[in-house]
Amino acid sequence: MSIVGPARGRCALRASRRAGWALSLLVCVGCVREQAKPTTAHGGRAQPEAAVDARRPVSEPVSRVPVDTWSDPSGGYPQQGLALLELTVGLAPIAAEVAATGLQRQIGLMHRLALAPGRGMLFIYPDRAQRAFWMKNTLVPLSIAYIADDGTITEIVDMEPAGEGEPPTYPSRAAVRFALEVNKGWFERNNIAPGDLVLGLEHAPEGR
Fold this sequence. Notes:
By secondary structure, this protein is of the alpha+beta class.
């Protein structure tokens, strides 16, 4: 074994301490530099939070925007195969398709490219209430007559095809169980006005 004298031992001890301090300083500096450079999983520099949000999938919008939750029950096609009911409105005959169920009433005359002369659609409800119609996905200008239980026309309203955006609604003033849609102007051309009678409703099915 070698023996180290007191002076040489103190010098060696001081040198050893200086080396330890230097190594500790280098390690700390390295830690600071690593913390100053956050990275993403692919190795690039991390993006600001706003930039990450801007690239979210469409299914996760950055802002909350109200959406139209109404769904077209027709699937984009006009309904067919409805029963026909022969009616007399005032003195004018008309053949009306019968919409007596909830689904039939919802679809109505949607997606029709035309409505034949002398044809219409009769909407039948299970009870009397104020009704409101709109022209969503309806391409043909229409007139609608709201009809009381005894067949009396309470009012007639003209309705235009809807453009972009939310279409207007055409509510009835009175509580009714029937409504009849025809080509726009048909009532006027046949001199039909509120107060006139619709005959043949006694043969209509019950609304469901």
